[in-house]
Design goal:
Helices cover 21% and strands 29% of the residues. Residues 1-75 and 362-384 have low confidence and may be disordered. The chain has helices at 3-17, 53-60, 213-219, 305-315, 323-341, 349-352, 381-402, 408-419, 455-458, 491-496, and strands at 78-85, 89-96, 101-108, 114-117, 142-152, 155-168, 171-183, 196-199, 227-232, 242-246, 259-262, 270-273, 276-278, 281-282, 290-294, 301-303, 356-358, 363-365, 430-431, 442-446, 449-453, 459-462, 469-472, 474-476, 486-489, 497-502, 507-512. It is elongated and about 75 Å long. The strands form five sheets. It has a six-stranded mixed β-barrel. The protein has a five-stranded mixed β-sheet with strand order 12-15-25-16-24. Strands 14-13-20-21 form a four-stranded antiparallel β-sheet. Strand 2 (89-96) and strand 3 form a beta hairpin. It is built from ten helices and 27 strands. Helix 4 (305-315) crosses helix 7 (381-402), helix 5 crosses helix 7 (381-402) and helix 5 (323-341) runs antiparallel to helix 8 (408-419).
């Protein structure tokens, strides 16, 4: 993989790590902030840092408008334009203090705190490459001093809480609690195109139980409705990166009507999602529904390894061969098929053949040692632990093919191929740029409606011609029950579908972006 692509991969996973978005300027009290275009530096020296252990930890750490207001009065809508960094990061500007000190932030629906670097950050290199908040230069600063830390996969930002006025577009939120970051370890924040993060999630996940900024917008009467919406421009050659609108929506940036689904769990903007389809064919994994999150702070699409592997196979993405997976197919493939044909409960099959236990709700690995004869060929306790997840994946894969009336030989060959496509733990999956037009549509069922993503939308492409390099927009992330299985619909999805976050009615809505 070339250095250009690696630079983009880091950019992608930085924003994914944080669980990413942005802001606009004014017209009849509708506030818009102009967006600048960030051009990709083909000779980015920081790409070399991707070889470091710190960068590997970053990649492996993902767990994270002329407006007519249709949801509120036109004089109660605030608009923030977004910058687009190669479809990987969307960000905009806010001002903190009086007079305002300008910061570039990601607007992140996957978190709820506002933080920016502090002028008291002395020991972290990242702070010297970004704007820093100076409380001594603000007339509206109020001391808090309570310590705070936000943990990410590759480290934590830490600092202390303060109060000050925050300007978003033309709106000024009074006495907003935020974090002055005094420590930003690692390469993550050093290479980021943003200074800090502005969380748009619910207070339930706010560190220190700090009131999110958008709550205060409503409380202080700055916007009439507790609603905000995103339009992300995926055309990197265009000047506008997109817009974030507080208090309403821009009807010029979507087509038709939104499909709304209720928020099922406050904290993140979480809702129930139906099955995932590859080339119009159901995978069967989310037939009984999966949890999903609409997350502007995640660049890619993250989902269960079982389905991501099926997508990898369909689009020809590279992966790593799983010997445990192949062992399951070799030793138990025929048995699994026989049980599926006999209409056994798919969720109990792996426990029936002794690779997992079943607690009534989900499977767990067998954690006890078993003594077997050396030549028995059966799995012992430690090996069974490793074979439980591949068994569960194999059951889903085989079931999906049997429902399509495939032959036994085809099913076994298909599953063996999937064993070679298991996503790398590093999260990267490169694809052949010349084959994009032949890749299938990948679709998500939300609110009974199917939302399609074309390969041109879910593949990130860097460069043109023979030097072009491409990576898949899908990455594996397994969240166990009861929180999971979980899908994270990031900027790839929100770029295709205009998204409304309606806290008043506790719902999320999607419509085709215009």
């Amino acid at each position: 993989m070339g250095s250009n692509l690696k630079a983009v991969v880091l950019s992608v996973f930085l924003s994914t790590l944080l669980f990413s978005l942005v802001i606009s300027a004014s017209n009849n009290r509708l506030v818009r902030i102009g967006l600048k275009k960030i051009k990709f530096d083909q000779n980015n020296r920081l790409a070399a840092w991707l070889e470091s252990k710190e960068a590997q930890a970053v990649r492996a750490s993902v767990r994270k408008y002329h407006i007519r207001n249709s949801l509120g009065d036109s004089d109660k809508t605030d608009i923030v334009p977004l910058k687009n960094y190669l479809d990987a990061q969307y960000f905009g500007e806010i001002g903190i203090g009086t007079p305002p000190q300008i910061f570039t932030v990601i607007f992140d629906t996957g978190s709820s705190n506002l933080w920016v670097p502090s002028d008291k950050c002395f020991l972290s290199l990242a702070c010297y490459f970004h704007s820093k908040y100076k409380s001594s230069e603000s007339e509206t600063y109020k001391k808090n001093g309570t310590s705070a830390a936000i943990q990410y996969g590759s480290g934590a930002i830490s600092g202390f809480f303060s109060y000050d006025d925050v300007k978003v577009g033309d709106l000024v939120v009074k006495s907003q609690e935020f974090i002055e970051a005094t420590r930003e370890p690692g390469v993550t924040f050093l290479v980021a195109k943003f200074d800090g993060l502005l969380g748009l999630g619910f207070q339930e996940i706010s560190v220190g139980n700090a009131t999110p900024l958008w709550y205060n917008m409503v409380e202080q009467g700055l916007i009439k409705e507790p609603v905000f919406s995103f339009w992300l421009n995926r055309k990197t050659e265009e000047e506008a990166g997109g817009e974030l609108v507080f208090g309403g929506v821009d009807p010029n940036h979507f087509k038709g009507k939104h499909t709304f689904v209720p928020v099922t769990r406050k904290g993140y903007w979480q809702f129930d999602m139906g099955d995932v389809l590859i080339g119009g064919k159901p995978t069967g994994y989310c037939t009984g529904s999966c949890a999903a999150i609409a997350d502007s702070g995640t660049s890619l699409m993250a989902g269960p390894t079982t389905v991501i592997t099926m997508i990898n196979q369909a689009i020809g993405a590279n992966g790593v061969a799983s010997q445990e997976c192949k062992a399951v197919v070799e030793q138990y493939g025929q048995t699994i098929i026989d049980l599926l044909v006999a209409e056994a409960n798919p969720k109990k099959i792996c426990s029936q053949i002794g690779l997992c236990t079943f607690d009534g709700a989900h499977r767990v690995s067998i954690g006890i040692e078993s003594v077997v004869e050396e030549n028995s060929g059966k799995a012992s306790g430690g090996i069974r632990d490793a074979m439980c997840p591949p068994c569960e994946m194999a059951v889903v894969w085989m079931q999906s093919q049997l429902k399509q009336n495939q032959t036994l030989d085809y099913v076994l060959a298909y599953v063996n191929e999937l064993c070679d496509r298991v996503p790398s733990s590093m999260g990267e999956s490169s694809v052949d740029c010349g084959n994009i037009s032949n890749m299938p549509t990948v679709s998500f069922t939300i609110g009974g409606k199917v939302f399609d993503l074309s390969p041109q939308e879910y593949i990130l492409k860097v460069g043109e011609g023979p030097t072009a390099q491409c990576i898949s927009g899908f990455m594996a992330m397994d969240i166990p029950p009861p929180r999971g299985p979980l899908w994270i619909l990031g900027d790839i999805f929100m770029g295709r579908y205009h998204t409304i976050f309606d806290a008043g009615k506790l719902r999320v809505g999607f419509a085709e972006a215009a």
